[in-house]
């Protein structure tokens, strides 16, 4: 009963952990074997009998009886006189099994045993948590804000597991209060030492895809397929959807009546502007749809360089480029083509690269990033708008505009 009472005191915290009694007893055996090795130098001659049903274990030490005064290894051998105190009829050469009481190990050893047991159970718990979250990478998860730090928000789930939402995985407009629930996807799980590090993301395209799966029954049921998702978190996203049933309008089903279905997703993502697009294997048509809301006049493809020349009416160009160049950038990511826009019917325009003698190449590249690759495309916008869209200083933009205007005046 001494062993049982001590084991119960060791395992009193078991019920709060992710561990069953059988596993606990296996850990107990490992812990006790380590303690025996430390005390006696070896555990080879010890039998540990585990009874998980009773929550008990017995430790038996096996030694060989030798004549008095001939003991060379006290752990492996026992003098005849000592052996006969256990059983009076023992003879030299026989095996003696003697039960070891935990209390005999001493108070300090028992405290060390308990600490080692707690450490092993934490290690087991961490491995279990790691496997649990590894299995749900890419899935939506909800946890509560526990602590707000400069570089991350620390979340706790219902079981007390710590989840990290780094600053760069948060949407720009995200604002959290302690105690509120936060949704995101489990993006990564790593074991740092023996502790699992669980990373949540709200900026991943996979989060938007999973929100569609949750909110749109036809996607959940497999009637509509999400082909690809691209996004600039908190600003704009494009989602290509398809259906193998001609009777289903995939875009209409995703958006819902007056946007009713997609509204909850938009709100979750900080009013991120979401374009839902009908997927097609017709590349020219797909690029045309991807540049929505702009109306494209024609598309010319270069399959080898994966580039597309898109022609639009002058008034449609700004729509194709979009605020901050987001629309054209996302359209390129969605279709896999580098898209260049050209004004239909506009004559005597000049490529910006023609001005590389007067305008530095890196400045030209800044304009091209937002879809402005001709002189007139730059001149048509005012300086303030150009400064806002690019990372250029106002003085630099003014110099560029002056150079371009002189070309046309000449």
Terminus-to-terminus distance: 105 Å
- Count the beta strands: 15
The proportion of residues forming helix, as a percent range, comes to 25-40%
Which architecture of the domain at 2-131 per CATH?
A: 2-Layer Sandwich
Query: Which structural class do you get from the secondary structure elements?
Result: alpha/beta
- DSSP strand (E) fraction? 25-35%
Estimate the mean pLDDT confidence.
85
Biggest β-sheet, characterized? 5 strands, mixed, barrel
Strand order of the largest sheet: 5-6-7-9-8
CATH topology of the domain at 2-131: N Utilization Substance Protein A, Chain:P, domain 4
| Helix count from the secondary structure assignment | 15
Radius of gyration: 36 Å
Identify the overall geometry. elongated
Description:
With 410 residues, this protein is α/β, with parallel strands linked by helices. Among the domains are: 2-131, N Utilization Substance Protein A, Chain:P, domain 4, CATH 3.30.1480; 136-203, OB fold (Dihydrolipoamide Acetyltransferase, E2P), CATH 2.40.50.140; 204-279, GMP Synthetase, Chain A, domain 3 (2-Layer Sandwich), CATH 3.30.300.20. The chain is 38% helix and 26% strand. The chain has 15 helices and 15 strands. The protein has helices at 2-10, 21-40, 80-86, 107-134, 205-215, 217-220, 250-255, 260-268, 283-290, 314-321, 326-335, 361-369, 375-379, 383-389, 394-409; strands at 46-51, 56-66, 77-79, 95-99, 140-148, 152-156, 162-166, 181-192, 195-201, 224-232, 236-243, 273-278, 296-302, 307-312, 338-343. The strands form 4 sheets. Strands 5-6-7-9-8 form a 5-stranded mixed barrel. Strands 1, 2, 3 and 4 form a 4-stranded mixed β-sheet that branches. Strands 10-11-12 form a 3-stranded mixed β-sheet, with helices on both faces. Strand 6 (152-156) and strand 7 form a beta hairpin. Helix 9 runs antiparallel to helix 11 (326-335). It is elongated, with a radius of gyration of 36 Å. The N and C termini lie far apart (105 Å). This is Transcription termination/antitermination protein NusA. One of its GO terms (molecular function) is DNA-binding transcription factor activity. Participates in both transcription termination and antitermination.
């Amino acid at each position: 009963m001494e062993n049982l009472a001590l084991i119960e005191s060791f395992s009193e915290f078991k019920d709060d952990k992710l561990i069953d009694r059988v596993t606990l007893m296996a850990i107990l055996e490992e812990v006790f074997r380590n303690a025996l090795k430390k005390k006696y130098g070896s555990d080879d001659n010890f039998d540990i009998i585990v009874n998980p049903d009773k929550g008990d274990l017995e430790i038996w030490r096996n030694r060989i009886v030798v004549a008095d005064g001939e003991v060379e290894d006290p752990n492996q051998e026992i003098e005849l006189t000592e052996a006969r105190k256990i059983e009076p009829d023992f003879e030299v050469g026989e095996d003696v099994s003697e039960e070891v009481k935990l209390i005999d190990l001493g108070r300090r050893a028992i405290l060390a045993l308990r600490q080692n047991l707690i450490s092993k159970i934490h290690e087991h718990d961490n491995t279990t948590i790691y496997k649990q979250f590894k299995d749900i990478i890419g899935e939506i998860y909800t946890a509560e804000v526990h602590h707000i730090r400069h570089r991350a928000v620390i979340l706790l789930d219902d079981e007390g597991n710590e989840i990290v939402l780094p600053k760069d995985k948060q949407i720009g407009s995200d604002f959290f209060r302690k105690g509120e629930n936060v949704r995101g996807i489990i993006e990564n799980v790593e074991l740092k030492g023996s502790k699992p590090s669980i990373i949540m993301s709200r900026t991943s395209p996979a989060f938007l895809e999973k929100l569609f799966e949750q909110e749109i029954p036809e996607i959940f049921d497999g009637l509509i397929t999400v082909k690809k998702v691209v996004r600039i978190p908190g600003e704009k996203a494009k989602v290509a959807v398809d259906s193998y049933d001609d009777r289903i309008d995939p875009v209409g089903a995703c958006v819902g009546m007056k946007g009713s279905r997609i509204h909850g997703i938009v709100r979750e993502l900080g009013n991120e502007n979401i374009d839902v697009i009908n997927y097609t294997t017709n590349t020219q048509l797909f690029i045309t749809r991807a540049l929505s809301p702009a109306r494209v006049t024609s598309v010319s493809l270069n399959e080898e360089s994966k580039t597309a020349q898109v022609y639009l009416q002058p008034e449609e160009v700004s729509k194709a480029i979009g605020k901050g160049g987001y629309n054209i950038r996302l359209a390129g990511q969605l279709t896999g083509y580098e898209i260049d826009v050209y004004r239909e019917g506009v004559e005597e325009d000049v490529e910006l690269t023609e001005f590389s003698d007067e305008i530095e190449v890196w400045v030209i590249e800044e304009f091209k990033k937002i879809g402005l690759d001709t002189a007139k495309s730059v001149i048509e916008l005012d300086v303030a708008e150009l400064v806002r869209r690019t990372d250029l200083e106002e003085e630099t933009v003014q110099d560029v505009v002056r150079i371009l205007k002189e070309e046309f005046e000449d």
